[in-house]
Amino acid sequence: MERGGVQRMSALARELTRVFISYNKASHLLRKNLKETNNFFREIRQNYSNICSSGTSDLEPGQLGCISFPRKDEEFLHGIVASVPYILVLGQDCAARYQLLNCLLGEKLLPVGSDLGGTCGPGGGACKRRKLCFNYGRQTRLSLALPGQYELVHQLAANCSRWDTVPLQDLEIQEDCEDSAQRLAELEITLQHPLLQECKVMVVPCSGVQSIEDALGDCTRNAVPVVLYALSRDRVSADEAAALHKLLHLLPFPVCYVRVPVSSGPPPEPGALQRQLVSLGLLPGGAGNCACGAPSQTHASSGKPPSVLGEGLDRLHRLLVPFARQVLSGQQVEAASRLDELHCKYLDLFINQAFDMQRDLQITPRRLEYTHEKECELFSSLMDIANRKQEEIKEMIVETLSAMKEQLLEDAANLEFTDVIMSSSGETVSTKDIKSCIHQIQELIMVRLNQTVANKLISSVDYLRESCVGTLERCLSSLEKSNTEAHNVTSNHLKQILNAAYHVEMTFQSGSNVSRLVWEQIKQIIQRLSWVNPPSITAEWKRKVAQDAIESLSAAKLARSICSQFRTRLNSSHDAFAASLRQLEEGHTDRLGRTEDLWVRVRKDHAPRLARLSLESRSLRDTLLHGKPKLGRELGRGQYGVVYLCDSWGGHYPCALKSVVPPDDKHWNDLALEFHYTRSLHKHERLVDLHGSVIDHTYADGSSIAVLLIMEKLHRDLYTGLKAGLSLKERLLIALDVVEGIRFLHSQGLLHRDIKLKNVLLDKQNRAKITDLGFCKPEAMMSGSIVGTPIHMAPELFTGKYDHSVDVYAFGILFWYLCSGSVKLPEAFEKCSSKDQLWTNVRKGSRPERLPTFDEECWQLMDACWNGDPLQRPLLGIVQPRLQSIMGRLCDGADQKSASLEDSN
Predict the structure, then answer these.
(1) Which residue among 754, 763, 772, 869 is the active-site one?
(2) Whole-model pTM?
(3) What topology does CATH give the domain 85-311?
(4) Tens digits of per-residue pLDDT, 638-665?
(5) In the annotation, is 754 catalytic?
(6) CA atoms within 13 Å, Cβ hemisphere of 849
């Protein structure tokens, strides 16, 4: 073999070694991420499974306390991280296999050509050469061993004398060998070779020695094989085609077919072998699987790299290295993607739970306060009715008795008595029966009066039923649902109070003050009635008794009694309601304390930890797919990173690369959450597009870890644009672009919190995009930290309690710069000697001054945006049309004036 060939093959071995080193590093990172993810899920389940099962939290079972890997994903991921990389060498004959192996390792280890002393036939012939397994070791050594079992005690020729290539007698199984163990044994060759340190290499035996199924036994268990098939002839026989189809069934991996040179015979026909392999279904059809270059792209349908064919060993480097990289990284990309999907799924769950908990913490106290105020309002309204409607109730009773008198008399005359014995002439037997008759007539009058008066009283306050009671009940229902501990006691008690006190369903039952009053007045009838003999119980007698009973009633006394009873019931119900509300408040106070603790843990621990795992899994996926980006010239520096130019990455060009070296866990967490929020956003034309991320574990010679965020590169930032000069129309259009970008962020539940000149980038047409979402967070995930750039920070940021209106304030300051057309600091800010003094002045109301060039409407808009009261700042949905109106008025007028001047000239 010529020296040049040896150098090329050595280069191939080095490149392959790098590919396998990368694979093993990625496997280590996957294994570490999977382990940490499992630990995290286990901790969450242990912490919150009791909460879920006991019902002492808002979290539904199956959420935080029940997060885990889906079984299929867990099995797949564990299978990937446990897989060992192999190079599996097959071929039409021993000479082809051995020649390809020598090429791989870059040295002539196995005999080929005349040294081999014969070749296998198309079906294996009489050749009986063993399976070869190449392993790493500090000393070169050969041994026979049963696969996966033990080494055999056997004297090998290679161990008896020096050798250049492995002796043939050690490769072959002797015909006279009767030891079954020796016939099945594989030849293990230990070499101090860098490639073998990263992977195992296996050369399959002759088909007459071992079936393909048995030979590949090791590769079907937790292995990722790079399958190579050496071809020494122009065609594949039917037996070889069948064996290859069986191989593809056993190992669903692509095959790299390599046409090795032959020392004799006519030259191969160009393309003939490829056409046959395509026709046999061993190569995909199409021009992408060329015989002379790098492998074609992955099949879109399968997501796996295709099988390829290389004609000759001289081009093997260009073919095999990318093929091996695709095969090895394919499953790792799938594993990293599944991990990342799972991380994102549960991270979104944490964020949604944070929103729910924050809303609960904000809304529940307001609901309790509202319930108290509404009940007091209802109580006062009903007491006012009771106090001022006594005369109305008196008149109502008089009118009621007058209206129903005739009907009552008629009903009394026709009343059939019960439990009264009368003679056939209609006379009663005793005084007792007479009293019973009178009592039944009184009962009829009292029941009818009670029903009628109560119904009219209810209708007089019926408007309160929906306006007060309905709203109150809905609010209470919401409070009771969120306080599961009070569900069986407080809820029922409150409903009883509402029914008793505020539905005003009054009936004057026998035990009430009204009923006793009616009875006292009707008893006087009996005293006024005098008779010597028992009267005849006729219709006239019944009518007279009823008329006397009705006339004896005092409407004024009844009205006073009704109102007094109404007030008594109201006071009693009000006190009971207040006691139950206090009980409900106590339950919510305890529950909200637990909710706030959980909210803090989700914000400060759970979500950041999971976001970091997500950043790692996504970065690993991006690295496997697109590689590590190359840093170009420095474009700028910020507080937390350096921005470089990157010519191209992942099919995007040119790119900007932000390199961040997180100094501690807090910065790691912030960066990971930033990355999650940014990549979770749908692509928007007013936001700088984030292409991906890569974690550089070799930064500063491995002493630190850098996170590289690769994003869309634009022409310049707004600060540079203003210094260079921008027209009024361009500046107003930039303002509109920024408002549109902020509105989109807010619609996604995110606050930017750092809107400023350098975080607005311009393209070559001076259209703006917002960048640097380092401080961007959902409101529910904010911990009250003071973040931002001092001159753009709203006063409430210093209190730690703020909302989306801080971005409106920052836009107001940005709009001042846009209207001024300069980057010069406002005078009020320029006078401040320190950041603390600036913050103090801003809290006291210091704002940028009005410049003489400012349009009145522009000044009013920016002044409204930086209002010290967040509630007084305009919504961006109002700011946007105002900006459009300003632009139409100022720019269209200027364009018309310019056009008229040109016409006059």
Answers:
(1) 754
(2) 0.76
(3) Rossmann fold (3.40.50)
(4) 777 889 999 999 999 899 999 999 888 8
(5) yes
(6) 11
